[in-house]
Amino acid sequence: MSVTNEISPDTPTAWWRDAAIYQVYIRSFADGNGDGIGDLAGVRARLPYLADLGIDAIWFCPWYPSPMDDGGYDVSDFRDIEPTFGTLEEAELLIAEAHALGIRIIIDIVPNHASDEHPWFKAALAAGPGSPERERFWFRPGRGENGELPPNDWQSRFGGPAWTRVADGEWFLHLYSSRQPDFNWTNPEVHAEFLDVLKFWFDRGIDGFRIDVADGLIKDPALPDVHGATTGPLPYSDMDGVHEVYRAWRKISDSYPGERIFVGEMWLPDPIRFARYLRPDEMHSAFNFDFLSCPWEAKRLREVIQSSMDSHSLVGAPPTWVLSNHDVTRHVTRYGRSGDTGFEFADRRHGTPVDRDLGTRRARAAALLTMALPGGVYVYQGEELGLWEIEDIPDELRQDPVFERTKHADPGRDGCRVPIPWGDKKPPFSFGTGGSWLPQPQEWAGYTADAQAADPDSMLSLYRKALRIRRDEPALGDGEMSWVMSLADVIAFTRDPGFTCMVNLSSEPVPLPRHESIILASGPLRGDQLPADTAVWLRTF
Ligand code: GLC
Protein backbone atom coordinates (compact mmCIF):
# COMPACT_ATOMS: atom_id res chain seq x y z
CA MET A 1 0.00 0.00 0.00
CA SER A 2 1.48 3.37 -0.94
CA VAL A 3 2.02 6.12 1.59
CA THR A 4 -0.54 8.32 -0.13
CA ASN A 5 -3.20 6.02 1.29
CA GLU A 6 -2.11 6.76 4.81
CA ILE A 7 -4.57 8.64 6.93
CA SER A 8 -3.39 12.01 8.00
CA PRO A 9 -5.54 13.58 10.69
CA ASP A 10 -5.15 16.97 8.99
CA THR A 11 -6.87 16.18 5.72
CA PRO A 12 -10.64 16.46 5.98
CA THR A 13 -12.32 14.50 3.24
CA ALA A 14 -15.93 13.94 4.34
CA TRP A 15 -14.79 10.33 4.09
CA TRP A 16 -17.75 9.19 6.16
CA ARG A 17 -20.30 10.34 3.57
CA ASP A 18 -19.70 7.26 1.47
CA ALA A 19 -17.37 5.02 3.48
CA ALA A 20 -17.56 1.23 3.25
CA ILE A 21 -17.38 0.25 6.92
CA TYR A 22 -16.62 -3.31 7.98
CA GLN A 23 -18.05 -4.48 11.29
CA VAL A 24 -15.79 -6.61 13.46
CA TYR A 25 -17.34 -8.60 16.29
CA ILE A 26 -13.99 -9.22 17.93
CA ARG A 27 -14.85 -12.45 19.78
CA SER A 28 -15.68 -14.11 16.50
CA PHE A 29 -13.29 -12.54 14.01
CA ALA A 30 -9.86 -14.14 14.49
CA ASP A 31 -8.14 -15.72 17.48
CA GLY A 32 -4.47 -14.82 17.78
CA ASN A 33 -3.63 -16.59 21.06
CA GLY A 34 -5.38 -19.94 20.69
CA ASP A 35 -7.94 -19.60 23.49
CA GLY A 36 -10.91 -20.05 21.16
CA ILE A 37 -11.93 -16.39 21.44
CA GLY A 38 -11.14 -13.72 18.87
CA ASP A 39 -8.79 -10.93 19.92
CA LEU A 40 -6.82 -7.89 18.79
CA ALA A 41 -3.83 -10.00 17.79
CA GLY A 42 -6.17 -11.87 15.45
CA VAL A 43 -7.46 -8.62 13.98
CA ARG A 44 -3.95 -7.27 13.49
CA ALA A 45 -2.96 -10.41 11.61
CA ARG A 46 -5.99 -10.03 9.33
CA LEU A 47 -5.62 -6.31 8.55
CA PRO A 48 -4.08 -7.06 5.13
CA TYR A 49 -7.20 -9.14 4.32
CA LEU A 50 -9.38 -6.14 5.16
CA ALA A 51 -7.20 -3.74 3.18
CA ASP A 52 -7.43 -6.11 0.25
CA LEU A 53 -11.20 -6.34 0.59
CA GLY A 54 -11.31 -2.61 -0.10
CA ILE A 55 -13.03 -1.21 2.98
CA ASP A 56 -12.48 2.31 4.32
CA ALA A 57 -13.02 1.78 8.03
CA ILE A 58 -13.56 -0.87 10.67
CA TRP A 59 -16.22 -0.59 13.34
CA PHE A 60 -15.29 -2.64 16.41
CA CYS A 61 -18.04 -3.91 18.67
CA PRO A 62 -17.14 -3.11 22.29
CA TRP A 63 -13.55 -3.94 23.15
CA TYR A 64 -13.64 -2.82 26.77
CA PRO A 65 -13.22 -4.99 29.88
CA SER A 66 -16.47 -6.82 30.39
CA PRO A 67 -17.87 -9.89 32.15
CA MET A 68 -19.38 -10.66 28.69
CA ASP A 69 -22.93 -11.13 29.87
CA ASP A 70 -23.99 -9.40 26.64
CA GLY A 71 -20.95 -9.99 24.44
CA GLY A 72 -19.16 -6.89 25.73
CA TYR A 73 -22.14 -4.51 25.65
CA ASP A 74 -21.85 -4.75 29.43
CA VAL A 75 -18.81 -2.55 30.01
CA SER A 76 -16.95 -2.54 33.32
CA ASP A 77 -14.25 -0.02 32.34
CA PHE A 78 -14.62 2.41 29.44
CA ARG A 79 -10.92 3.28 29.37
CA ASP A 80 -9.23 -0.06 28.83
CA ILE A 81 -9.27 -3.21 26.68
CA GLU A 82 -10.87 -6.50 27.64
CA PRO A 83 -7.95 -8.73 28.76
CA THR A 84 -9.09 -11.70 26.67
CA PHE A 85 -8.91 -9.35 23.64
CA GLY A 86 -5.52 -7.81 24.47
CA THR A 87 -4.11 -4.63 25.94
CA LEU A 88 -4.43 -0.89 25.47
CA GLU A 89 -0.97 -0.89 23.98
CA GLU A 90 -2.04 -3.43 21.37
CA ALA A 91 -5.12 -1.36 20.56
CA GLU A 92 -2.85 1.63 19.92
CA LEU A 93 -0.66 -0.47 17.63
CA LEU A 94 -3.73 -1.74 15.82
CA ILE A 95 -4.98 1.83 15.25
CA ALA A 96 -1.59 2.85 13.85
CA GLU A 97 -1.32 -0.23 11.63
CA ALA A 98 -4.82 0.24 10.27
CA HIS A 99 -4.16 3.90 9.53
CA ALA A 100 -1.00 2.95 7.67
CA LEU A 101 -3.18 0.74 5.45
CA GLY A 102 -5.65 3.55 4.85
CA ILE A 103 -8.28 2.08 7.18
CA ARG A 104 -10.02 4.20 9.79
CA ILE A 105 -11.14 2.92 13.19
CA ILE A 106 -14.57 3.37 14.73
CA ILE A 107 -15.27 1.93 18.18
CA ASP A 108 -18.49 1.19 19.95
CA ILE A 109 -19.49 3.35 22.89
CA VAL A 110 -22.22 2.13 25.22
CA PRO A 111 -23.64 5.18 27.03
CA ASN A 112 -27.05 3.79 27.97
CA HIS A 113 -25.79 1.31 30.53
CA ALA A 114 -22.79 -0.24 32.25
CA SER A 115 -21.96 -3.69 33.51
CA ASP A 116 -22.97 -4.54 37.06
CA GLU A 117 -19.21 -4.94 37.57
CA HIS A 118 -18.54 -1.29 36.70
CA PRO A 119 -17.00 0.42 39.79
CA TRP A 120 -19.83 2.98 39.83
CA PHE A 121 -22.46 0.27 40.12
CA LYS A 122 -20.53 -1.58 42.80
CA ALA A 123 -20.20 1.71 44.70
CA ALA A 124 -23.93 2.32 44.26
CA LEU A 125 -24.76 -1.07 45.75
CA ALA A 126 -22.40 -0.52 48.67
CA ALA A 127 -23.52 3.05 49.39
CA GLY A 128 -27.20 2.17 49.80
CA PRO A 129 -30.52 3.95 49.22
CA GLY A 130 -30.54 7.74 48.95
CA SER A 131 -26.78 7.97 48.28
CA PRO A 132 -25.25 10.10 45.50
CA GLU A 133 -23.70 6.87 44.14
CA ARG A 134 -27.19 5.49 43.46
CA GLU A 135 -28.08 8.69 41.58
CA ARG A 136 -25.82 7.63 38.71
CA PHE A 137 -28.30 4.84 37.95
CA TRP A 138 -32.06 4.43 38.33
CA PHE A 139 -32.69 3.01 41.79
CA ARG A 140 -36.25 3.15 43.10
CA PRO A 141 -38.30 1.52 45.87
CA GLY A 142 -40.73 -1.11 44.61
CA ARG A 143 -44.49 -0.99 44.51
CA GLY A 144 -46.83 -3.26 46.48
CA GLU A 145 -47.23 -3.54 50.23
CA ASN A 146 -43.62 -4.47 50.88
CA GLY A 147 -42.05 -3.04 47.75
CA GLU A 148 -42.10 -6.51 46.24
CA LEU A 149 -43.31 -5.31 42.83
CA PRO A 150 -41.13 -3.47 40.28
CA PRO A 151 -41.42 0.36 40.30
CA ASN A 152 -43.19 0.33 36.92
CA ASP A 153 -44.26 -2.02 34.14
CA TRP A 154 -41.34 -1.53 31.75
CA GLN A 155 -40.05 -4.70 30.10
CA SER A 156 -36.43 -5.47 29.30
CA ARG A 157 -35.71 -5.64 25.57
CA PHE A 158 -34.17 -9.02 26.32
CA GLY A 159 -37.38 -10.28 27.96
CA GLY A 160 -38.74 -10.14 31.50
CA PRO A 161 -39.12 -7.07 33.71
CA ALA A 162 -36.74 -4.13 33.26
CA TRP A 163 -36.13 -3.98 37.02
CA THR A 164 -34.13 -6.14 39.40
CA ARG A 165 -34.31 -5.97 43.18
CA VAL A 166 -31.14 -5.68 45.26
CA ALA A 167 -30.50 -6.98 48.78
CA ASP A 168 -31.62 -3.80 50.57
CA GLY A 169 -35.00 -3.91 48.81
CA GLU A 170 -34.51 -1.18 46.17
CA TRP A 171 -34.88 -1.95 42.48
CA PHE A 172 -32.66 -0.78 39.62
CA LEU A 173 -33.59 -0.22 36.00
CA HIS A 174 -32.08 -2.19 33.11
CA LEU A 175 -33.56 -1.97 29.63
CA TYR A 176 -31.37 -4.95 28.68
CA SER A 177 -30.05 -7.78 30.89
CA SER A 178 -30.12 -7.58 34.67
CA ARG A 179 -26.34 -7.24 34.49
CA GLN A 180 -26.64 -3.99 32.48
CA PRO A 181 -27.87 -1.22 34.80
CA ASP A 182 -29.04 1.91 32.94
CA PHE A 183 -27.16 5.14 33.60
CA ASN A 184 -29.14 8.12 34.84
CA TRP A 185 -28.45 10.85 32.29
CA THR A 186 -30.19 13.51 34.37
CA ASN A 187 -27.05 13.33 36.51
CA PRO A 188 -24.30 15.75 35.31
CA GLU A 189 -21.64 13.31 36.51
CA VAL A 190 -22.74 10.85 33.83
CA HIS A 191 -22.44 13.52 31.12
CA ALA A 192 -19.00 14.55 32.32
CA GLU A 193 -17.80 10.96 32.49
CA PHE A 194 -18.72 10.23 28.87
CA LEU A 195 -17.21 13.45 27.55
CA ASP A 196 -14.00 12.35 29.18
CA VAL A 197 -14.25 8.83 27.75
CA LEU A 198 -14.71 10.27 24.24
CA LYS A 199 -11.55 12.33 24.66
CA PHE A 200 -9.65 9.36 26.04
CA TRP A 201 -10.18 7.45 22.78
CA PHE A 202 -9.97 10.37 20.38
CA ASP A 203 -6.59 11.10 21.99
CA ARG A 204 -5.59 7.55 21.03
CA GLY A 205 -6.34 8.25 17.40
CA ILE A 206 -9.70 6.64 16.80
CA ASP A 207 -11.76 8.13 13.98
CA GLY A 208 -15.22 7.77 15.41
CA PHE A 209 -17.75 6.10 17.65
CA ARG A 210 -20.72 3.91 16.95
CA ILE A 211 -23.24 4.91 19.60
CA ASP A 212 -25.08 1.97 21.13
CA VAL A 213 -28.82 2.44 21.87
CA ALA A 214 -28.36 6.08 20.93
CA ASP A 215 -32.03 6.99 21.35
CA GLY A 216 -32.33 5.49 24.82
CA LEU A 217 -30.23 7.63 27.15
CA ILE A 218 -32.91 9.99 28.43
CA LYS A 219 -35.81 8.58 30.42
CA ASP A 220 -38.91 10.40 31.59
CA PRO A 221 -37.93 10.89 35.26
CA ALA A 222 -41.51 10.18 36.30
CA LEU A 223 -40.93 6.63 35.01
CA PRO A 224 -44.57 6.24 33.93
CA ASP A 225 -46.10 2.86 33.11
CA VAL A 226 -46.31 2.03 29.40
CA HIS A 227 -49.20 -0.47 29.64
CA GLY A 228 -47.62 -2.93 27.24
CA ALA A 229 -46.66 -0.40 24.54
CA THR A 230 -43.49 -1.16 22.62
CA THR A 231 -43.87 1.45 19.88
CA GLY A 232 -45.16 4.98 19.69
CA PRO A 233 -43.88 7.59 22.12
CA LEU A 234 -42.10 5.70 24.91
CA PRO A 235 -40.70 7.24 28.11
CA TYR A 236 -37.33 5.55 27.50
CA SER A 237 -36.75 6.08 23.79
CA ASP A 238 -36.25 9.11 21.57
CA MET A 239 -36.95 11.63 24.33
CA ASP A 240 -36.20 15.14 23.09
CA GLY A 241 -33.50 15.75 25.70
CA VAL A 242 -31.21 13.17 24.11
CA HIS A 243 -30.22 15.61 21.36
CA GLU A 244 -28.46 17.83 23.88
CA VAL A 245 -26.13 14.94 24.64
CA TYR A 246 -25.08 14.60 21.00
CA ARG A 247 -24.68 18.34 20.53
CA ALA A 248 -22.17 18.29 23.38
CA TRP A 249 -20.45 15.23 21.90
CA ARG A 250 -20.21 16.83 18.47
CA LYS A 251 -18.36 19.77 19.97
CA ILE A 252 -15.75 17.31 21.25
CA SER A 253 -15.33 15.47 17.94
CA ASP A 254 -15.15 18.74 16.02
CA SER A 255 -12.38 19.94 18.29
CA TYR A 256 -10.10 17.15 17.00
CA PRO A 257 -8.13 17.31 13.74
CA GLY A 258 -9.39 15.32 10.77
CA GLU A 259 -13.00 14.24 10.63
CA ARG A 260 -13.95 12.22 13.68
CA ILE A 261 -17.45 10.90 13.47
CA PHE A 262 -20.46 9.53 15.32
CA VAL A 263 -22.67 6.79 13.90
CA GLY A 264 -25.92 6.21 15.74
CA GLU A 265 -27.75 2.99 16.49
CA MET A 266 -31.41 3.99 16.64
CA TRP A 267 -34.22 1.58 15.84
CA LEU A 268 -36.98 4.17 15.38
CA PRO A 269 -40.24 3.76 13.47
CA ASP A 270 -40.45 7.38 12.23
CA PRO A 271 -37.85 8.39 9.61
CA ILE A 272 -38.36 12.07 10.37
CA ARG A 273 -37.68 11.62 14.10
CA PHE A 274 -34.69 9.48 13.09
CA ALA A 275 -33.26 12.24 10.88
CA ARG A 276 -33.26 14.66 13.83
CA TYR A 277 -30.21 12.79 15.17
CA LEU A 278 -28.35 13.63 11.96
CA ARG A 279 -28.74 17.39 12.09
CA PRO A 280 -25.45 19.12 11.30
CA ASP A 281 -24.55 19.68 14.96
CA GLU A 282 -25.34 16.10 16.06
CA MET A 283 -24.24 12.76 14.59
CA HIS A 284 -22.74 12.25 11.15
CA SER A 285 -24.64 9.15 10.13
CA ALA A 286 -26.69 6.24 11.43
CA PHE A 287 -27.59 2.68 10.57
CA ASN A 288 -30.49 2.29 8.19
CA PHE A 289 -32.52 -0.43 9.90
CA ASP A 290 -35.60 0.20 7.76
CA PHE A 291 -33.55 -1.03 4.84
CA LEU A 292 -32.09 -3.95 6.80
CA SER A 293 -35.55 -5.08 7.96
CA CYS A 294 -37.18 -4.75 4.55
CA PRO A 295 -38.28 -7.95 2.78
CA TRP A 296 -36.81 -8.85 -0.61
CA GLU A 297 -39.61 -7.20 -2.57
CA ALA A 298 -39.05 -4.53 -5.20
CA LYS A 299 -41.92 -2.25 -4.22
CA ARG A 300 -41.08 -2.25 -0.51
CA LEU A 301 -37.37 -1.78 -1.15
CA ARG A 302 -38.01 1.11 -3.53
CA GLU A 303 -40.19 2.76 -0.89
CA VAL A 304 -37.60 2.31 1.85
CA ILE A 305 -34.80 3.59 -0.37
CA GLN A 306 -36.82 6.65 -1.32
CA SER A 307 -37.97 7.41 2.21
CA SER A 308 -34.39 7.00 3.50
CA MET A 309 -33.12 9.45 0.93
CA ASP A 310 -35.93 11.91 1.62
CA SER A 311 -35.48 11.91 5.38
CA HIS A 312 -31.70 12.18 5.19
CA SER A 313 -31.82 14.97 2.66
CA LEU A 314 -33.90 17.04 5.09
CA VAL A 315 -30.80 17.36 7.25
CA GLY A 316 -28.11 17.00 4.57
CA ALA A 317 -26.88 13.66 5.95
CA PRO A 318 -25.80 10.70 3.81
CA PRO A 319 -27.97 7.57 4.09
CA THR A 320 -26.35 4.24 4.87
CA TRP A 321 -27.19 0.77 3.59
CA VAL A 322 -26.96 -2.15 5.98
CA LEU A 323 -27.89 -5.78 5.33
CA SER A 324 -26.72 -7.56 8.49
CA ASN A 325 -25.10 -7.06 11.88
CA HIS A 326 -24.39 -8.94 15.10
CA ASP A 327 -28.00 -8.60 16.31
CA VAL A 328 -29.98 -9.86 13.33
CA THR A 329 -30.45 -13.06 11.34
CA ARG A 330 -27.86 -13.19 8.56
CA HIS A 331 -29.36 -12.06 5.27
CA VAL A 332 -28.48 -15.16 3.23
CA THR A 333 -30.89 -16.95 5.56
CA ARG A 334 -33.51 -14.20 5.65
CA TYR A 335 -33.62 -13.84 1.90
CA GLY A 336 -33.74 -17.60 1.38
CA ARG A 337 -36.80 -18.12 3.58
CA SER A 338 -40.13 -19.14 2.22
CA GLY A 339 -42.73 -16.50 3.01
CA ASP A 340 -41.62 -13.35 4.81
CA THR A 341 -38.03 -12.38 4.03
CA GLY A 342 -37.99 -9.32 6.30
CA PHE A 343 -36.48 -9.06 9.77
CA GLU A 344 -38.23 -8.50 13.10
CA PHE A 345 -36.79 -8.88 16.58
CA ALA A 346 -40.20 -10.01 17.76
CA ASP A 347 -40.17 -12.96 15.39
CA ARG A 348 -36.82 -14.40 14.35
CA ARG A 349 -38.52 -17.25 12.51
CA HIS A 350 -35.78 -19.74 13.32
CA GLY A 351 -36.57 -23.05 11.70
CA THR A 352 -38.54 -21.58 8.77
CA PRO A 353 -37.43 -23.52 5.64
CA VAL A 354 -34.53 -21.82 3.87
CA ASP A 355 -33.46 -22.19 0.24
CA ARG A 356 -29.84 -21.25 0.76
CA ASP A 357 -28.97 -21.07 -2.94
CA LEU A 358 -31.78 -18.61 -3.45
CA GLY A 359 -30.74 -16.63 -0.34
CA THR A 360 -27.18 -16.51 -1.62
CA ARG A 361 -28.21 -15.33 -5.10
CA ARG A 362 -30.27 -12.58 -3.50
CA ALA A 363 -27.48 -11.68 -1.08
CA ARG A 364 -25.14 -11.23 -4.05
CA ALA A 365 -27.67 -9.01 -5.78
CA ALA A 366 -28.30 -7.08 -2.55
CA ALA A 367 -24.57 -6.40 -2.17
CA LEU A 368 -24.48 -4.73 -5.58
CA LEU A 369 -27.65 -2.81 -4.78
CA THR A 370 -26.28 -1.41 -1.50
CA MET A 371 -22.91 -0.55 -2.98
CA ALA A 372 -24.51 1.38 -5.85
CA LEU A 373 -26.82 3.51 -3.72
CA PRO A 374 -25.74 7.00 -2.63
CA GLY A 375 -24.17 7.15 0.83
CA GLY A 376 -22.30 4.77 3.10
CA VAL A 377 -22.36 0.99 3.21
CA TYR A 378 -21.77 -1.50 6.02
CA VAL A 379 -20.38 -5.02 5.73
CA TYR A 380 -20.82 -7.34 8.71
CA GLN A 381 -17.94 -9.78 9.09
CA GLY A 382 -18.64 -12.98 7.21
CA GLU A 383 -21.23 -11.50 4.88
CA GLU A 384 -18.45 -11.17 2.30
CA LEU A 385 -18.07 -14.96 2.62
CA GLY A 386 -21.79 -15.54 2.16
CA LEU A 387 -22.17 -17.02 5.65
CA TRP A 388 -25.64 -17.91 6.80
CA GLU A 389 -27.35 -18.01 10.19
CA ILE A 390 -26.42 -21.06 12.25
CA GLU A 391 -29.80 -22.06 13.64
CA ASP A 392 -28.91 -25.40 15.21
CA ILE A 393 -26.49 -24.34 17.95
CA PRO A 394 -27.16 -26.73 20.84
CA ASP A 395 -29.11 -25.01 23.62
CA GLU A 396 -26.40 -25.60 26.22
CA LEU A 397 -23.88 -23.72 24.10
CA ARG A 398 -26.02 -20.65 23.48
CA GLN A 399 -24.58 -17.59 25.20
CA ASP A 400 -26.84 -14.68 24.29
CA PRO A 401 -28.78 -13.58 27.43
CA VAL A 402 -31.85 -13.21 25.20
CA PHE A 403 -32.17 -17.00 25.11
CA GLU A 404 -32.50 -17.40 28.89
CA ARG A 405 -34.41 -14.17 29.53
CA THR A 406 -37.11 -15.15 27.04
CA LYS A 407 -37.22 -18.64 28.58
CA HIS A 408 -35.93 -20.02 25.27
CA ALA A 409 -38.79 -18.52 23.25
CA ASP A 410 -36.21 -16.46 21.32
CA PRO A 411 -33.07 -18.39 20.30
CA GLY A 412 -31.08 -15.15 20.54
CA ARG A 413 -28.27 -13.81 18.39
CA ASP A 414 -25.57 -16.47 18.63
CA GLY A 415 -26.39 -17.80 15.17
CA CYS A 416 -24.94 -14.73 13.44
CA ARG A 417 -21.90 -14.62 15.75
CA VAL A 418 -20.27 -17.94 14.94
CA PRO A 419 -16.49 -17.51 14.44
CA ILE A 420 -15.26 -16.78 10.93
CA PRO A 421 -13.83 -19.62 8.79
CA TRP A 422 -10.50 -18.46 7.39
CA GLY A 423 -8.91 -21.59 5.94
CA ASP A 424 -8.33 -25.31 6.45
CA LYS A 425 -10.85 -28.09 5.90
CA LYS A 426 -12.26 -28.57 9.37
CA PRO A 427 -13.30 -26.50 12.42
CA PRO A 428 -12.03 -24.13 13.67
CA PHE A 429 -11.12 -23.34 10.06
CA SER A 430 -8.00 -21.37 11.02
CA PHE A 431 -10.07 -19.08 13.23
CA GLY A 432 -7.32 -19.90 15.71
CA THR A 433 -5.50 -22.91 17.04
CA GLY A 434 -7.70 -23.54 20.05
CA GLY A 435 -11.21 -24.29 18.84
CA SER A 436 -13.95 -21.69 18.66
CA TRP A 437 -16.30 -20.40 21.36
CA LEU A 438 -19.34 -21.29 19.26
CA PRO A 439 -19.34 -24.38 17.02
CA GLN A 440 -18.88 -23.89 13.27
CA PRO A 441 -20.61 -26.20 10.78
CA GLN A 442 -18.46 -28.58 8.73
CA GLU A 443 -20.13 -27.17 5.60
CA TRP A 444 -18.09 -24.02 6.05
CA ALA A 445 -15.10 -25.91 4.63
CA GLY A 446 -16.17 -24.63 1.22
CA TYR A 447 -16.76 -21.08 2.49
CA THR A 448 -13.41 -20.21 4.07
CA ALA A 449 -11.70 -17.01 3.01
CA ASP A 450 -8.85 -19.08 1.58
CA ALA A 451 -11.16 -21.29 -0.48
CA GLN A 452 -13.03 -18.27 -1.81
CA ALA A 453 -9.98 -16.13 -2.57
CA ALA A 454 -9.01 -18.57 -5.32
CA ASP A 455 -12.48 -18.69 -6.87
CA PRO A 456 -13.40 -15.77 -9.17
CA ASP A 457 -17.10 -16.53 -8.77
CA SER A 458 -17.13 -16.63 -4.97
CA MET A 459 -18.94 -14.16 -2.75
CA LEU A 460 -15.56 -12.89 -1.54
CA SER A 461 -14.43 -12.19 -5.09
CA LEU A 462 -17.68 -10.36 -5.79
CA TYR A 463 -17.24 -8.15 -2.71
CA ARG A 464 -13.62 -7.42 -3.58
CA LYS A 465 -14.47 -6.43 -7.13
CA ALA A 466 -17.52 -4.42 -6.15
CA LEU A 467 -15.81 -2.50 -3.34
CA ARG A 468 -12.89 -1.68 -5.58
CA ILE A 469 -15.11 -0.49 -8.42
CA ARG A 470 -17.20 1.50 -5.96
CA ARG A 471 -14.09 3.28 -4.75
CA ASP A 472 -12.80 4.12 -8.24
CA GLU A 473 -16.06 4.82 -10.02
CA PRO A 474 -16.90 8.56 -10.01
CA ALA A 475 -20.65 7.88 -10.19
CA LEU A 476 -20.70 5.85 -6.96
CA GLY A 477 -20.55 6.84 -3.32
CA ASP A 478 -21.99 10.14 -2.11
CA GLY A 479 -24.35 11.98 -4.43
CA GLU A 480 -27.67 11.66 -6.21
CA MET A 481 -29.51 8.94 -8.07
CA SER A 482 -32.52 8.86 -10.40
CA TRP A 483 -35.04 6.06 -10.66
CA VAL A 484 -35.51 4.49 -14.05
CA MET A 485 -39.02 3.45 -15.05
CA SER A 486 -39.03 -0.31 -14.91
CA LEU A 487 -41.19 -3.38 -14.51
CA ALA A 488 -42.93 -3.63 -11.14
CA ASP A 489 -40.52 -6.22 -9.73
CA VAL A 490 -37.35 -4.57 -10.96
CA ILE A 491 -35.31 -1.89 -9.21
CA ALA A 492 -33.37 0.33 -11.59
CA PHE A 493 -31.63 3.65 -11.12
CA THR A 494 -28.95 5.72 -12.72
CA ARG A 495 -26.09 7.68 -11.27
CA ASP A 496 -24.07 10.27 -13.08
CA PRO A 497 -21.91 9.96 -15.00
CA GLY A 498 -23.03 7.00 -17.06
CA PHE A 499 -23.90 4.35 -14.50
CA THR A 500 -27.00 2.18 -14.14
CA CYS A 501 -27.81 -0.38 -11.47
CA MET A 502 -30.59 -2.85 -12.14
CA VAL A 503 -31.86 -5.57 -9.83
CA ASN A 504 -34.38 -8.18 -10.91
CA LEU A 505 -36.58 -9.25 -8.00
CA SER A 506 -39.12 -11.00 -10.19
CA SER A 507 -39.07 -14.71 -10.95
CA GLU A 508 -38.42 -14.30 -14.70
CA PRO A 509 -35.48 -12.89 -16.68
CA VAL A 510 -35.93 -9.27 -17.82
CA PRO A 511 -34.22 -7.47 -20.73
CA LEU A 512 -31.25 -5.26 -19.94
CA PRO A 513 -31.61 -1.60 -20.87
CA ARG A 514 -29.44 -0.10 -23.61
CA HIS A 515 -25.87 0.04 -22.37
CA GLU A 516 -22.32 0.48 -23.47
CA SER A 517 -20.82 -2.28 -21.35
CA ILE A 518 -21.33 -4.48 -18.34
CA ILE A 519 -19.29 -3.38 -15.34
CA LEU A 520 -20.21 -6.16 -12.93
CA ALA A 521 -23.03 -8.64 -12.41
CA SER A 522 -23.96 -10.57 -9.29
CA GLY A 523 -24.48 -13.76 -11.31
CA PRO A 524 -24.30 -15.04 -14.89
CA LEU A 525 -26.39 -13.10 -17.43
CA ARG A 526 -28.36 -14.82 -20.17
CA GLY A 527 -27.40 -12.89 -23.25
CA ASP A 528 -29.14 -9.55 -22.94
CA GLN A 529 -31.37 -10.80 -20.15
CA LEU A 530 -30.99 -10.22 -16.42
CA PRO A 531 -32.01 -13.44 -14.63
CA ALA A 532 -34.20 -13.49 -11.52
CA ASP A 533 -32.57 -12.39 -8.25
CA THR A 534 -29.59 -10.93 -10.06
CA ALA A 535 -28.16 -7.40 -10.11
CA VAL A 536 -26.01 -5.73 -12.72
CA TRP A 537 -23.94 -2.56 -12.94
CA LEU A 538 -23.94 -1.10 -16.43
CA ARG A 539 -21.97 1.59 -18.15
CA THR A 540 -24.66 3.64 -19.84
CA PHE A 541 -24.54 6.54 -22.25
C1 GLC B 1 -27.37 -2.77 20.88
C2 GLC B 1 -26.32 -3.77 20.46
C3 GLC B 1 -26.70 -5.10 21.03
C4 GLC B 1 -26.73 -4.99 22.53
C5 GLC B 1 -27.68 -3.88 22.98
C6 GLC B 1 -27.49 -3.54 24.42
O1 GLC B 1 -28.60 -3.02 20.33
O2 GLC B 1 -26.20 -3.77 19.07
O3 GLC B 1 -25.81 -6.11 20.63
O4 GLC B 1 -27.14 -6.20 23.09
O5 GLC B 1 -27.44 -2.70 22.27
O6 GLC B 1 -26.25 -2.92 24.61
From TrEMBL:
InterPro entries: GH, GH13_cat_dom, O16G_dom_2. Gene3D superfamilies: Glycosidases, Oligo-1,6-glucosidase, Domain 2. It holds the Pfam family Alpha-amylase. Coiled coil: none annotated. CDD domains: AmyAc_OligoGlu_TS (cd11332). Residues 23-417 form the Glycosyl hydrolase family 13 catalytic domain. GO terms for molecular function: alpha-amylase activity. GO terms for biological process: oligosaccharide catabolic process. Belongs to the glycosyl hydrolase 13 family. This is Alpha-glucosidase. It comes from Kibdelosporangium aridum.
